[in-house]
Design goal:
Blueprint: H1 2-7, E1 33-36, H2 43-51, E2 64-67, H3 77-83, H4 90-99, H5 114-126, H6 132-146, H7 152-157, H8 163-167, H9 175-182, H10 192-205, H11 212-222, E3 226-228, H12 229-236, H13 239-249, H14 256-261, E4 268-270, E5 274-277, H15 279-287, H16 289-309, H17 327-333, H18 391-403
Parallel strand pairs: 1-2
Antiparallel strand pairs: 3-5, 4-5
Helix pairs in contact: 2-3, 4-5, 10-16, 11-16
């Protein structure tokens, strides 16, 4: 047999050339060199091929991978294959490149030289993990693994693609819309307005950045869609969050395009004595178990994401160091009245908060007028470019003194 001739010490074969048949279902621990002779477009197939040489064996200290056909265009496969992480979260993949060996169990070591890192970073940035083909492939793989239609949290519990990658696709702003595509015969679709509401819950809260919104939704779900104003205040804990949540759930916080996307009418009605889902949502929750289950899935996903990423928030900002946030996220977490992402550029002072935005990697042809010397001299010192007597700066100093 060819495998015996390859693996025996006195064997007469140095290489076996195959097409597909060694991708899975074969175990040859003695393999110490893999030569790639054709492009690999699937991450799953790449991991399988890579894995042929990663088994331990006596007198085998390392494996050599030779790429003759340009897999460097897809070299983001490498950190995915080596880390075992299948979330396809770009930040997670980049973190593995930075941390390398420290994130691996046991005595395994991985080192990326700086040129390789930079090329892999570029490949990650260019890659679109939210293509329909890729999403369907990952979904089918998970479904076959667990033997049922996956819930949102199954993607995390079984180390599959991160649900946020699904929601990044313009046609799949909620899980029901995705299931319509991949489970055409076995999926019960939602109404237009139900999809708008589910999209609102999904895009705004499933990431788990802040739990007050999720606690409010959950409390309404458990109490026939209505709670007392007293209970609402208990959930919010302070008046700034009370004001913030009210503007978010009445849609006043959002820009016009988002308001239209989320159904154009307040999600929650606020009176002096109670807080309630609007009548259309109430009817859907009471009569449509599929819609209700989708909302529950978003709640579970948000709580899981919060537990995994956002428990160590800095109280003054509701943010976690080194996590990634958009300007819209900042407006919400800072309890601003409106989403001002379109008008916040270098900095903005509001509600005793003063976010500063820095373009760290500037284009070579950047205009001198905006080529600011904005960088951290050390972890505590950041050079200012404003006159210290400017009114905005003076207001900032006054606020800082009040905080102290």
């Amino acid at each position: 047999m060819a495998i015996d001739r390859l693996t025996r010490i006195d064997g007469d074969l140095d290489y076996l050339i195959t097409v597909d048949i060694f991708n899975e279902g074969i175990d040859i621990p003695e393999i110490n060199q893999i030569v790639m002779l054709r492009p690999t477009q699937s991450v799953i197939v790449f991991v399988q091929q890579f894995g042929r040489g990663l088994r331990k064996e006596n007198n085998k200290d390392y494996v050599v991978i030779l790429d003759f056909i340009g897999n460097y265009d897809n070299n983001f496969f490498i950190p995915i294959a080596l880390s075992g992480d299948k979330t396809y979260n770009k930040n997670t993949i980049k973190e593995f490149l930075i941390e390398g060996t420290s994130s691996l169990p046991g005595a395994s070591t991985i080192d990326f030289d700086e040129i390789s890192k930079e090329r892999i970073y570029q490949s990650i940035n260019k890659q679109n993990f939210s293509t329909i083909k890729h999403l369907q492939e990952q979904y089918s793989h998970l479904k076959n693994k667990i033997g049922k239609t996956p819930k949102l949290i199954d993607f995390i519990n079984y180390n599959s693609i991160e649900p946020q990658v699904i929601f990044d696709h313009k046609d799949f702003s909620n899980y029901s819309l995705f299931l319509e595509r991949v489970e055409k015969k076995n999926h019960i679709p939602l109404s237009t307005y139900e999809n708008q509401v589910l999209t609102f819950f999904t895009l705004e809260f499933s990431n788990g950045m802040r739990l007050e919104e999720i606690y409010l939704i959950e409390s309404l779900m458990k109490n026939n869609c209505s709670i007392s104003m007293e209970r609402y205040k208990e959930i919010c804990k302070d008046k700034n969050i009370e004001r913030s949540l009210k503007r978010i759930f009445t849609l006043e916080f959002f820009v016009k395009t988002d308001i239209k996307k989320y159904g154009s009418i307040p999600i929650i009605d606020f009176s002096d004595y109670k807080v309630s889902f609007n009548s259309k949502i109430y009817k859907s929750i009471m009569t449509n178990s599929v819609f209700k289950d989708h909302i529950q899935q978003v709640i579970y996903l948000a709580k899981l994401n919060y537990a995994n990423k956002y428990t160590n928030t800095i109280k003054s900002s509701n943010m976690v160091l080194f996590e990634k946030y958009t300007k819209k996220d900042m407006c919400r977490l800072f309890n601003w009245d409106n989403d001002e992402k379109g008008t916040v550029y270098g900095y903005r002072f509001k509600h005793n908060t003063f976010p500063i935005y820095v373009t760290y990697h500037k284009k070579e042809d950047i205009s001198d007028s905006i080529n600011y010397k904005d960088y951290f001299i050390n972890p505590q010192i950041f050079p200012g470019r404003q006159n210290l007597v400017e009114p905005l700066i003076q207001r900032m100093f006054v606020s800082l003194r009040k905080v102290k």
